[in-house]
Amino acid sequence: MEIRKIQIKDAENYLDMLLNLDKETKYMLFEPYERPTDINITKSIIDRSINGDNLILVATHENSIVGFISVQRGVQIRIRHTAYIVVGIRESFRGKGIGSNLFDKLDSWARDNNIKRLELSVICSNVVAKHLYEKHGFMVEGIKKNSMIIDGKYVDEFCMAKLY
What we know:
Helix content is 31%, strand content 36%. It is built from 4 helices and 7 strands; from the N terminus they run βααβββαβαββ.
């Protein structure tokens, strides 16, 4: 397994991983088949990561991308010191340390890029992910009530952050 920055040549592999992840878990934003499948959109997102202030790290196993962490830095001056993150790992690769490795690389990137606050949200019932985030220094700051609908029911999300 390798953790590295995403490259344009990863676009199809990355999109395939995201589409499969959407089918495997109810904890991501997109329902299965809701995510845009236009490869040019995916390439544009990757390009902004490579040539801009954002970051996408991928975890690879053999020739497949099996996990990722996406980091969107604040654009406006007042929030330039912050970044919002999204993380996902394919079901068959969870529990193997990939999440911790992604967060370790994220910490290095955040320090190198003068990030003072990382933010994320997690569905309250996703105790495994919440534990991972807490293990890496994130703390619950609040709850977003009825923030998503999953299986026809409203669910709450924890708002979490880590300060450097």
